[in-house]
Amino acid sequence: MQMVAFLFPGQGSQFPGMGKELYDNFAVAREVFEEANDALGFDLAAMCFNGPEEDLKLTTNTQPAILTTSIAAQRVLQQETDLKPGYVAGHSLGEYSALVCAEGLAFADAVRTVRKRGAFMQEAVPVGDGAMAAVIGLDQDDLEVVCKEAAQGEVVSPANFNSPGQVVIAGNVAAVNRAIELAKERGAKRALPLPVSAPFHCSLMDPAGKRLAEVLETVSVASLQFPVVTNVEASPNQEAGRIKELLVAQVSAPVRWEESVRAMLGLGVERFVEIGPGRVLAGLIKRIAKGTAVQNLQDVKDLNALQGA
After folding, report:
1. Active-site residue 92, yes or no?
2. For residue 286, what is the domain's CATH number?
3. Catalytic residue (one of 13, 163, 201, 252)
4. What is the pTM of this model?
């Protein structure tokens, strides 16, 4: 049997209509959306299915919406196939989906927590003061130097190590803009600002981490049924006692996605299944590990392909 890893997407994968086909066709998916509506006290399902896109893009809505759609898809997969993961991982927000999949967090607790996480991350930096940018085609060491030079007493640092030659940086607007120009001078193929509402995964998020820690104190954690490869360490964790500290650290620490994927390959993973909206992670896997089997599950067509495989 091939060893499989389940992967869960983060912010940016949302779109109006996500999850609707699974909701319409599977009672188990409907139950997840209904549980989310009850936990949050508003109709998240309607927002996922109908938008409007502006509402879905608000961080406090995006995070529970993607988590809910991902877990609905995961429960369908669990019911309709015999696929079991050797490892699970998620990109930023997706780590909460991975923890629910591994049974370390209860779904209702996770959906309430990520709604607050979204609010804390948004409120940590006034709108317009923070920025993120994608830098393509500059190696990691050169980018670290660029960030140090561009900071000039402000914050700018790598936020997401996504795939070879694709790194996202985050920090104060002026520092990020200086880093964009310096990166181009140093030979980056492209460096462009991203349409995000806050500078995630940098030290400007420290206040959000402190507030998140208080919320997580009230949440129960359980034994993990399989290891979660964490963003902060890019290595598997199966200790329930470490879940909270890693989630708090993750808010300000870079997402070490490329390393996480390479770690799973090194542990014997031969096939990846991205579960939830969009195909962002599948695209990154194809760049990190060319030729590795990657599949998606976000609709019925994907499910049929997985069952066929």
Report:
1. yes
2. 3.40.366.10
3. 201
4. 0.97
